[in-house]
Amino acid sequence: MNIPNQITISRIVLIPLFMVFLLVPFNWGELALLGATIPVHHFVAAIIFIFAASTDWLDGYYARKYNLVTNMGKFLDPLADKLLITAAFVSLTGLDMFPAWAAVVILSREFAVTGLRLVASGEGDVIAASIWGKWKTVSQIVAASSVLLHNIIFEMFAIPFHTIMIYVAVILTIFSGVDYFVKNKHVLNKSM
């Protein structure tokens, strides 16, 4: 197994660790940062999440730079992304830290585009990631990270950055989903 695929698998392996720190109420107290407080276990979960999310860039960089793109990597990379995002948004929704409606919109789009990719694959087509899909992923990671960090950076300025990022993530999620279906409507037409 090549290095990019190992990096991708490490992202998947980090998901249970992230969830344990996020969901188990360790009694480690609170951390005061920049005028806000955050439970220490949420801070640790946020660091794990941000590190895991950053491996998405790293595995892609290595795969392209050293020509190590494999079919396994093409399968595992988007799967790892979706598992990490799903774990974050479902867990945060369960903790009443993330709106359920936003999680449903985001996860519905992820399932719909994955379904479209499966149909395309069955027809022999490959649907590459679009620039909107990449911006969508970045916005989702930033939204989840800011919620995980209890908006600590912007709390002292009374800016609801985490709420703004939730709306940005939802808008980009919807837009990128529509973009995928419009640009690949031929896939659905072929399969009917």
Q: Give the terminus-to-terminus CA distance.
A: 37 Å
Strand ordering within the main sheet:
1-2
Task: Calculate the mean pLDDT score and round it.
Answer: 90
Residues in β-strands, percent? under 5%
CATH architecture: Up-down Bundle
Explain what this protein looks like in three dimensions.
This protein has 192 residues and is mainly α. It has helices at 3-23, 40-65, 71-94, 100-122, 131-148, 152-155, 161-183, 185-191; strands at residues 30-33, 36-39. The chain has a single domain (3-191), classed as CDP-alcohol phosphotransferase transmembrane (TM) domain (Four Helix Bundle (Hemerythrin (Met), subunit A)), CATH 1.20.120. It contains 8 helices and 2 strands, in the order H-E-E-H-H-H-H-H-H-H. It has a two-stranded antiparallel sheet. A hairpin with a 2-residue loop joins strand 1 and strand 2. The longest helix has 26 residues, at 40-65. The radius of gyration is 18 Å and the shape is globular. Its EC number is 2.7.8.5. It is found in: Cell membrane. This is CDP-diacylglycerol--glycerol-3-phosphate 3-phosphatidyltransferase.
How would you concisely characterize the structure shown here?
With 192 residues, the protein is mostly helical. It has eight helices and two strands, in the order H-E-E-H-H-H-H-H-H-H. The protein has a two-stranded antiparallel sheet.
Please describe the structure with a list of short key phrases separated by commas or semicolons.
single chain, 192 residues, mainly alpha, Four Helix Bundle (Hemerythrin (Met), subunit A), two-stranded antiparallel ribbon, 8 helices, cell membrane, transmembrane, CDP-OH_P_trans
